[in-house]
Amino acid sequence: MLIVADENIPLLDSFFGDMGDIRRVPGRTMTAEQVRDADILLVRSVTQVGPRLLEGSRVRFVGTATIGTDHIDLDWLEQQGIAFSAAPGCNANSVVEYVLSVVLLHAERKGLDDWSSLSVGVVGVGSVGGKVARKLERLGFDVHLCDPPRAEDPDDEDAEGFESLADVLKCDVVTLHTPLTRDQAHATYHMIGAEELSLLRSPQLLISAGRGAVVDCQSLSDRLDQPDAPAVALDVWEPEPAVDPALMDKVWLATPHIAGYSLEGKVHGTEMVYQALSRYLGLPVRKKSGQFLPEPALNKVSFTSSADEADALRISLLSCYDPRRDDARMRVAIRGDEAERSKAFDRLRRDYPVRRECSSLKVQLKGTSKSLQDSFRAIGFKIKI
Ligand SMILES: NC(=O)c1ccc[n+]([C@@H]2O[C@H](COP(=O)([O-])OP(=O)(O)OC[C@H]3O[C@@H](n4cnc5c(N)ncnc54)[C@H](O)[C@@H]3O)[C@@H](O)[C@H]2O)c1
Ligand SMILES: O=C(O)[C@H](O)[C@H](O)COP(=O)(O)O
């Protein structure tokens, strides 16, 4: 069996080595020629999968080690009888930690003593947005939710209290977690356009961590030229990989589509596709991720009752993930003509440093308040009292 795989899928040999021969190819430029004799195709978000890539090939199973599926022509795969699996939720926690760190830095920049005094609007309340909302609620934030497809779904038992997009855009922070969809009810392509952007004003913060084209980035660039523009944190761009350097200069935090790039998120993505392929082939479905996610023995911090509680939370969260490091790397790397910028964007992603989630950090909280301990638990740290 021949498996053709994006070379940037981690742990290909460890997960798929016993299943067949693996041919690694660059995902961004994958060609029909490279996949023609494959039985299995494994991709990430940068490969467009549809008739142009697969017509005339032997491929019977396509797996994407990602949450998003907007790069896959799902209808065509179904018509062809080609099995498909994504990795829903694999890196949701990583995106949540990106959002929490961005909100923390925003509150700090605004000089707020209590970050949870901010109201947060979550647009798209699925796997990622739902987790963002639950964690923020546990941390005491005033959270508002917008998800019209769920609000209209009669079978969704938890679909309560959803608000309109216009109402949610009144929050201090608005964070976008919808898929990119076109030609369907509540399509999200350019959902945040000139009109919506005119409703967002300084000192509000817009975070975009779903897909770039959910925001009309030309309108965003124009809006950011105005003096009352909101602050913006962009993890996803329109277009990628050729990020517009003028837009990058105007946004507060610029990161190269890495919100989901924790080690845990990447390993779980590969494992979920491996398990789906095992089921498809009728092989035993094993869990292998644990061996690649060791407990980092050195990652321990401790605070006592004398610690400033806000500082303890801040130090711990930012020591796990500080988006300013990714922002700094991106601003240095993205330069030159379109081809150079595209290469730099992909290089930043390919060579991304190992990033562990908060659950990998052991925090000792001797003699601290119950509310601080609850906050650490809500974020996902392991705590020792
Ligand atoms: N930046 C990153 O690194 C990164 C990482 C993971 C996922 N993503 C993106 O985030 C998206 C969401 O992931 P998920 O796991 O939460 O998906 P999901 O399918 O679990 O949830 C998406 C939610 O968005 C809702 N939605 C759809 N159209 C909407 C609209 N017009 N307005 C408001 N809500 C709408 C859906 O009803 C659903 O509840 C993915 O599709 C992917 O594109 C980005
Ligand atoms: O959809 C997802 O899971 C994320 O956007 C993911 O982080 C994309 O990563 P890529 O496949 O582009 O490496």
TrEMBL record:
Q: Name one GO biological process term.
A: pyridoxine biosynthetic process
InterPro entries found in the cross-reference section = D-isomer_2-hydroxyacid_DH (IPR050223), D-isomer_2_OHA_DH_cat_dom (IPR006139), D-isomer_DH_CS1 (IPR029752), D-isomer_DH_NAD-bd (IPR006140), Erythronate-4-P_DHase (IPR020921), Erythronate-4-P_DHase_dimer (IPR024531), NAD(P)-bd_dom_sf (IPR036291), PdxB_dimer_sf (IPR038251)
Q: Which residues bind substrate?
A: 45, 66, 261
What is the E.C. number?
1.1.1.290
Q: Which sites are catalytic? A: 211, 240, 257 (proton donor)
List residues of the D-isomer specific 2-hydroxyacid dehydrogenase catalytic domain: 28-281
Residue ranges occupied by any Erythronate-4-phosphate dehydrogenase dimerisation domain in the UniProt entry: 292-380
Record-level GO cellular component terms? cytosol
Which residues does the record give as NAD(+) binding sites? 147, 178, 235, 260
Entry keyword annotation includes Oxidoreductase: yes
**SUPFAM superfamilies, alphabetically?**
Formate/glycerate dehydrogenase catalytic domain-like, NAD(P)-binding Rossmann-fold domains
Pfam families attached here?
A: 2-Hacid_dh, 2-Hacid_dh_C, DUF3410
Instruction: Provide the GO MF annotations for this entry.
Output: 4-phosphoerythronate dehydrogenase activity; glyoxylate reductase (NADPH) activity; hydroxypyruvate reductase [NAD(P)H] activity; NAD binding; protein dimerization activity
Q: Where in the cell is it found?
A: Cytoplasm
Q: Where is the D-isomer specific 2-hydroxyacid dehydrogenase NAD-binding domain?
A: 115-259
Q: In which pathway does it act?
A: Cofactor biosynthesis; pyridoxine 5'-phosphate biosynthesis; pyridoxine 5'-phosphate from D-erythrose 4-phosphate: step 2/5
| Catalyses which reaction(s) | 4-phospho-D-erythronate + NAD(+) = (R)-3-hydroxy-2-oxo-4-phosphooxybutanoate + NADH + H(+)
Q: List the keywords (alphabetical).
A: Cytoplasm, NAD, Oxidoreductase, Pyridoxine biosynthesis
User: Which family does this protein fall into?
Assistant: Belongs to the D-isomer specific 2-hydroxyacid dehydrogenase family. PdxB subfamily.
Which NCBIfam families does the entry link to? PRK00257.1
Q: Which PANTHER family match?
A: 2-HYDROXYACID DEHYDROGENASE YGL185C-RELATED (PTHR10996:SF178), 2-HYDROXYACID DEHYDROGENASE-RELATED (PTHR10996)
Question: What is this protein's function?
Answer: Catalyzes the oxidation of erythronate-4-phosphate to 3-hydroxy-2-oxo-4-phosphonooxybutanoate.
User: Subunit info?
Assistant: Homodimer.
**What is the protein's given name?**
Erythronate-4-phosphate dehydrogenase
Which organism does this record belong to? Marinobacter nitratireducens
